[in-house]
Design brief:
Blueprint: H1 2-12, E1 23-29, H2 48-51, E2 55-58, H3 60-63, E3 72-77, E4 88-95, E5 103-105, H4 107-112, H5 119-125, E6 128-135, E7 145-148, E8 158-163, E9 170-178, E10 185-186, E11 188-191, E12 194-197, E13 205-213, E14 216-226, E15 235-237
Parallel strand pairs: 1-5, 2-4
Antiparallel strand pairs: 1-6, 2-5, 3-4, 3-6, 7-8, 7-15, 8-12, 9-10, 9-13, 11-12, 13-14
Keywords: Secreted, Signal
Family: Belongs to the expansin family.
Domain Expansin-like EG45: 38-142
Length: 259
């Protein structure tokens, strides 16, 4: 629990980065989209379900030790001759190691910034000046879900992956207990959106998630998330739909005259 609290306060301190503010940077793209689904967040092919293939790798300040996985951003290139003012929305699914850019986009997301008929011209540039800001993720018909990973080994090891995390939020801690019990055990972040534990009870399982949005945090409780006969490889609906929006304490905020 001490480790969870330390991580919680570490991630809360990142609120000073002002996610909601417009950031100025550059963006590149992957010639192949395959690195993004298989990236540091651990989504695998399920990443394509998060935003229709509009994916991004972000630098460490966006990745946030994995807590930024699944975050949504609106991004647009700054050349009005080539690119639209609305830009496109992307979901963060990987860590960007390129120190020339904050964000590396999937091919489809990169071309989605372009004006009609200008996609190939944007691609030829390779790297473009961009501005971006974090926006809420919207999964109107989809609750927060957990996927039991294939590496789970009942009754000794449980690995889950978080999917469809809505709002402008980050999950910084997860506890697991048997349904009806108050004997909670902390899970650890394995990598990105993947969490694991070797301490979990028999029977149906409940989870509680520490969800932060800016400088505020709260516990949300999935009272019955996994049935007693849970199976590896299956996705389970938690019944929770997270819609919180960041309430950041940082000022001033450069909105970049975003329209």
């Amino acid at each position: 629990m001490a480790h969870s609290l330390w991580l919680f306060f570490l991630l809360l301190s990142s609120a000073t980065a002002c996610d909601r503010c417009v950031q100025q940077s550059k963006a590149a793209y992957f010639s192949s989209d395959s690195p993004l689904p298989s990236g540091a967040c651990g989504y695998g092919s399920l990443a394509l379900n998060l935003s229709g293939g509009s994916l991004a790798a972000g630098v460490s300040s966006l990745y946030k030790l994995g807590a930024g996985c699944g975050a949504c951003f609106q991004i647009r290139c700054k050349d009005p001759k080539l690119c639209s003012s609305r830009g496109t929305n992307v979901t963060l699914t990987d860590l960007n190691y390129n120190n020339q850019t904050d964000i590396v986009l999937s091919n489809s997301a990169f071309t989605a910034m372009a004006n009609q008929g200008m996609a190939q011209d944007v691609l030829k540039l390779g790297i473009v000046d961009v501005e971006y800001k974090r926006v809420p993720c919207e999964y109107k018909n989809q609750n927060l879900a957990v996927r039991v990973e294939e590496s789970s080994q009942k009754p000794n090891y449980l690995v889950i992956k978080l999917l469809y995390q809505g709002g402008q939020t980050e999950v910084v801690s997860i506890d697991v207990a048997q349904v009806g019990s108050s004997n909670w055990n902390a899970m650890a972040r394995n990598s990105g959106a993947v969490w694991d534990t070797s301490r979990f009870p028999d029977g149906a399982l409940q989870f509680r998630f520490m969800v932060t949005s800016g400088h505020e945090g709260k516990w949300v409780w999935a009272k019955t998330a996994l049935p007693a006969d849970w199976k590896n490889g299956l996705v389970y609906d938690t019944g929770l739909q997270i819609t919180d929006i960041a309430q950041e304490a940082c000022t001033p905020c450069d909105d970049g005259n975003w329209t």
